[in-house]
Structure formats: structure tokens, C-alpha cells
Amino acid sequence: MLSLPFLLASQLAISAYAAPSPSSVGGTSLSNKDSSLTILYQNNLNGSDDANHISAILLDATSPRQAAAACASLGETLLSRAAIQAHSDDFYNQLSYLVYNRRANRRQQYQISDGLVSFDSRKGRLDFQGAPRGYASFPVLCTQSTSSSQPTNSSATAANEITIAAAGNTYLGYRNKKSWRFSGLRYANIPARWQYSSVYSGVGQSLNATAFGSQCVQVSGQGSEDCLFLNVQTPYIPKPGSKKNLKPVLFWIHGGGFNGGTGSDPGSDGGNPASREDVVVVTINYRLATLGFFNVPGTNITGNYGIADQITALQWTINNIAAFGGDANQIVIAGSSAGGGSVRVLLGSPPAIGKFQGGIAQSNLGGGVGLGQTGNYATAYSSYITPQQGYALAGQQIFTAVGCNQTSVTAQIACLAQVNYTRIATLPTRAEKVVQDGKIVNTEQLIVNTKNASTAHVPVIFGINANDGSSFSTYPKKANVTSELQGIELSLGITEPYAQGIIDSGLFPYYDSGNLTLDSFNVSQRVATDNQFRCVDEATVYAGATTGAFPRAYYYESDRTLGGYDPNGLGGPPVTPGYPRGNPNLPYFRVHGADQGWLFGNLPYLRDGPDLYSLQLESNWYAGFMKRGDPNQPRAYLEARGYTRTIEGIQLSGSWDPIVGANGPIKHLDWPSYSAGFVDVPQCAYLNYSLSYYLEGGI
User: Fold this and answer.
1) Which helix (H) or strand (E) is 399 found in, with range?
2) How far apart are CA 656 and CA 645, in angstroms?
3) What percent of the chain has pLDDT over 90?
4) Which terminus has fewer CB within 10 Å in the chain: N or C?
5) Is 141 helix (H, G, I), strand (E, B) or coil?
């Protein structure tokens, strides 16, 4: 129940402080000093509909005489009855959820400009009463006048800024319609090149958290070595020191092949999960490529610095996320592609185990051995190479390329340490592999063939896009493809006997559309999807569920996607009448990275109604996993929130159940979704990555 006494919030003076980026704060701003702050917004995930909804700020209980001043301290006014009535369904559902979430009782009244409003579940409506009498205190509903709702149009202004105390400092953030936003939070002291990062130790500072910090150095040379920042979006800010009503935390690790990417990508913005699902979202930067993964055997340059940065960011989050409304004991790590690979690494990393309570790995790569190849791009994401192997791939080549040709390795290292980071980043040879360094990674693979102390005993979700491999096989546009055999050879880069073996197996049927190049590529991308994604990930969850290495393991395949990594220029679904952005009901390639929007509720546009309905359904499942380690949220929760379309989706799709055996089940994500057995089990066995691959000791 909201019953904490509320005192008139005073403006908090922030003294200027000269500090590294992000810049310091000067002047005055508003704070959570005297009340918790909750943004109420009924988010249906349809960005084009945001203008038709309003949000409000909920404050702790205070006396009627102080209510208007409490809102004024935020630059707002008491919410009016007319505004509530104009959006009555939204506010009915928001107040209903407060009751469900035990932040209020069923008779709770809230102060507004015209008196009081309450939620009446028996009558199914909001009740309005006149001005209260006596000395009772009531929670306060204030306007929230910032209209921006998307990461691309949200920015700090004098009217929407907020300061909070955290990590021994004061941070200036801001709000938009959906969440409180803190960007560019420094989570680590600036490390020396090829040294481990440590949790940021600066205190007593007033820091600006209204703009993203620099991205880590990319392969283009853009970015900075001073880049270890994270971002927080939250629906709720507690009073200083309070541990009440803390929310689950989604800790997002971006992908990009360990040589690109950033935590400030609009696609991973946390505003939608914060408002729709009542969770806190943390997104991070970490060092990349040679600056993050270089190792020199026999020296103190041991590699995996980018992974170590992720662990440092996790520790900062554990230490400080309560000040931003997050529960440090309810953190789920998640990532896609190299981010999914990072989740896999952290599940088996000694210094990371115990720092999180669940993991979501989207399109984790692995496999790649076979068909005449000893490995490919995907292999090292799930089978970690030795430092010597890493150095052979990207060691002396780097020294030589920058002219560090000294006779001793020690002198070469000293030379390389002085080379400009842009030059290092743009070299044709890059260190970008996870290695068995003995500290961050001390096994060749994630151990799932037994329940063991080397693997985090937490629930997991693994999954892929239906055609992930179409992004990692070559569409031979310029070749004159004259046969299926030739097309497979060109697409997969394998020799004729192995291509013929694929055809002779009968496991990868050829569908004749009249376009020989496309049809042979369709066979190849299926092989690539199995060989580099599906087989290893299915075998991982099957083994982990069978042995109890994971208490629960869930698996999905995304059949409805949008955008993604498309180096072959395959494009999305074809445009047809009524579908100017493509008809997702027709065949198209579900390419790598094209499902991320469904985790964050962020799609750049909607092609049809089922895009939105599936977005709402999958957002609910992911949030359930963040909250309970189980995607299936109680129906009472969905009813309290007014998520009727999601209730319909669950009725049509069934629950998302954990893996229990060789028949799965897995979830095919779409509208509606459906459950089935593991996909391409015979094909994976043919490719030497059977469902029991890890149970049989495979690496």
C-alpha cells in the first residue's frame, strides 16, 4: 500500500564538478528525495499510437494541502478528472495493476486536482469523489507533460530532468513518456590498455546522465577507449535507501561479432519493457576486437577483456541498481549473436556465476566443424580456443602490421601500447575470439553434460531465427549457377563431394521455384542454419535440461521477424496489395538478428496486426522469464493490466513449456505461436551435431 509520508520536495542544488565524460552537472534539478517516483503509462507497443495516450507520475502519500506542491516540485500539476476520463481504460488498468502488485489496496484513493479517484474492481470502473476532509494522506497522481516517447526523439530539458543519489554520486537523468532515463553512467574506472576493468570508484561527484557515453572503438575506428558506460531505463525510482517495490532487471549485452556494436542502439532501448512489463533495463558497452580480446601467451596480456568488462558492469549493477528501482537479486542477462555468445560464456565463467539469476541467448553461434571443414566463423562462439591458438590467428600479424618488429615480445607489447587505437582497430587482422585464459574462461566449452559448479545453475532461454544461416552463407548473385550442386558449393564454400553428400542425404530437399540460384541457396542456408546455430543450441538446452545443469531450459524458433543482419541483400517479405512494407504471411528469410525487436517491444514499423499482437505476446513471455524464471505469467496479472490481446494469444498458442526430453517442446514464435518438437534432428545428426552431442562429450 502507498502510505509513506510525503514532504514537499525541495529543489536539490547540484554543484558543478569537473569530471571525465559524461559531463558534470551544474544548476538545479528535481529529485526523489521525498517520494518514490513511478511513471504510469498503458503501453500497447504500437509506437504510432503513443500520441493517443498520456502518462502520469505517481507520488507517495501526502496530505491534501501538500499535494499540489508535490507535483509542482516536479514541474507538473495534479492530474485532472477530465484527463483521466479521457483515458479511462488506461488509468483503470494502471490502478488495477497497483492493486495486483500490492502497492495499493482495493479501496485506495488517489489525489487529483478535482478531489479523489479510486479503482473499483467490482463495478469495473473508476470512482471519483470530492475533496478529502480531515488529515488523511493519499498517494498523488501528477501530470507527466513530456510528450516524447521514442529513443530517437527523447532528450533532457529543464522541465523533465531528475537527480538521484547512487554509487556515492548524484546523477542527473530525465524522463520521457514511458520511463526514467539515465545514460552514459560510468561503470568502470578507465582501464589501461589490456588490463582488466574495475568497478568505478569515483564518489562525491555530480554527473550528467542525460547523454550516451562514447561507444567502444569499432572496426571503423570510430569510438573511444574511454567507453565503459551503461544506460538505465526504469519505470520506478524509490526514495533514497528504500528497497521497496524493486523490479526485475534485464541486463543487455549487445552483439556485433565482438568487433562492433553499442549499448546505445535504439533497437535495445528499454523504454517499452520498462513501461509495458514493469522491469528495469540496463544496456552496456564493452571493449571490442583487439582492444578487448588481444592475448599474448606467456605474458600478463591474457585476453577476454571485453567479457571481463561485462562482469564489471554486472557488479556495478548489483551494487547500485536498487537506487534506480532494480532488484539486484533478480537480474537476467541477455544478448543476441555475439551478445548471445557472451551469455553462453558468462553461464560458465567463474567470476560471473552468482551475479545473475537467468540467461537469454538469442542466436548464439557454434558448431561449424564438418563438411570437410575444421571450423568456421561460428565455431569459436561455443568452443573456446587456447591462448596459443588465439595468438596464432591474431598475434604477430598485428605487431608486424603496425611496425612493432622488435626482437622481444616485451618490447613489441610496449611498442603496440603506444599505437593509436584507430590504427589498431582498422587493421585487417583483429583479435576477436574468446580464449581459455584460466580466469574468465577456464573450460573449452560450457559444461552441460552434468549438473556442476562450473555452470551457473539458472533457468535459460536459447533460440534462433528460422533462417539465421542465410546471413552466414553466400548468395552467389554474380555466379552463373547451373546446378544445385554448384550452388551449394558456392554458398557454403565446400568441395563437390560434401555438396553432393548433402544432396544424396535427402535431408535437405530442393524446392523448385524456377530460380536455380535462389533454390540452391535455400538448401545451403538451411544447412548453414543447422550447422552454425540450430544444432548446437538445441543440443545445449537438451543436455542442460536432461542433466539438471539448468533447472529449466526453454527454446524457441522465431518464425516472424523484421530487419536484421542481411549481407546478402535478401530483403524482407514481398510487397503485395495492402502490405506496402512487405507481407509477412508470405515466404521470406528470417535473417540473423531479426528477432531482437520482440524482446524489447521495439519495431520500427508494423506490417500488419499480427506484428503487433506477436510483439505483445512475446514481450509478455520474456518479461515473465525475467520475473519468475518462467515465461508464463499468471492470467490474473494479464487481466489486471488489461492485456486482453495477450490473453487471447496465450489461449491460441498455449503455454511456453520447458524442455523435458528429446521431443522438446520448443516454441515457434509467431501469431499465434505453437509448440512442437526439436527442429531438424536428423539433419543435425547428419552434420555430426546430434541432439545428444553434449551428452556424448562433444566439443
Assistant:
1) helix 396-401
2) 17
3) 92
4) C
5) strand
61, 223 in Cβ contact below 8 A? Answer: no
- Bin 80: left if φ > 0, else alpha if -120 < ψ < 50, else beta: beta
In this prediction the pTM is 0.95
Going 264 to 267 to 268 to 271, the CA torsion angle's sign is positive
Q: For residue 83, with 0-12 CB atoms within 10 Å meaning exposed, 13-18 middle and 19 or more buried, which class applies?
A: middle
Under 8 Å between Cβ of 255 and 306:
no
CA dist 1 and 460 (Å) reads 33
Lowest mean pLDDT of 126-140, 422-436, 604-618, name the range: 126-140
DSSP classification of residue 89:
H
Residue ranges of alpha helices (H) inside 463-600 are 484-492, 496-505, 516-529, 535-547, 596-600
- Asked if residue 189 has pLDDT above 70, the reply is yes
Q: Record the cell numbers describing residue 90, joined without a space.
A: 488506461
Q: Is the distance from CB of 317 to CB of 243 less than 8 angstroms?
A: no
Please name which of 398, 397, 394 lies closest in space to residue 421, comparing C-alpha atoms.
Answer: 398
Domains, the chain, ordered by start: 32-144 (3.10.100), 149-443 (3.40.50.1820), 460-686 (3.40.50.1820)
Report in angstroms the alpha-carbon separations of 9 from 13, 22, 73, 172, 461: 12, 26, 6, 16, 43
What share of residues in the chain are helix, strand, coil (percent, to 5)? 30, 20, 50
Q: How far apart are CA 309 and CA 332, in angstroms?
A: 17
pLDDT in tens, 273-315: 999 999 999 999 999 999 999 999 999 999 999 999 999 999 9
Going from the C-alpha of 325 to that of each of 147, 272, 282, 599, 660, the distances in angstroms are: 23, 16, 12, 20, 35
Please choose, from the candidates 669, 394, 695, the residue with its C-alpha nearest in 3D space to the C-alpha of residue 546.
695
Angle between helices 338-347 and 305-320 in degrees, nearest 10: 70
d(CA 662, CA 560): 25
| Rounded Cα–Cα distance for residues 146 and 76 (Å) | 10
Q: Which residues are 111's β-sheet partners?
A: 116, 140
Runs of H (alpha helix) within 629-699: 635-641, 644-653, 681-686
Q: If you ran DSSP here, which 8-state letter would residue 11 be given?
A: P
Question: How far apart are the C-alpha atoms of 151 and 149, rounded to whole Å?
Answer: 7
Peptide bond into 665 cis (omega under 30): yes
Q: What is the tens place of the pLDDT at every residue in 101-120?
A: 999 999 999 999 999 999 98
Q: Is the peptide bond before 248 cis (omega within 30 degrees of 0)?
A: no
Query: Which of 617, 615, 593 is closest to 265 using CA atoms?
Result: 593
Question: Are the CB atoms for 200 and 68 separated by under 8 Å?
Answer: no
Nearest to 147 by CA among 55, 83, 70, 85: 55
* Residue 250 near residue 281 (C-beta atoms within 8 A): yes
Instruction: Identify the three-state secondary structure at position 487.
Output: helix
For residue 465, give the amino acid letter: N
443: closest CA among 352, 360, 533, 349? 349
pLDDT level of residue 17 (50, 70, 90 thresholds): very low
55-62, strands of its sheet edge to edge: 125-129, 115-120, 109-112, 138-144, 55-62, 37-40, 236-237
Q: Specify whether the CB–CB gap between 538 and 691 falls below 8 A.
A: yes
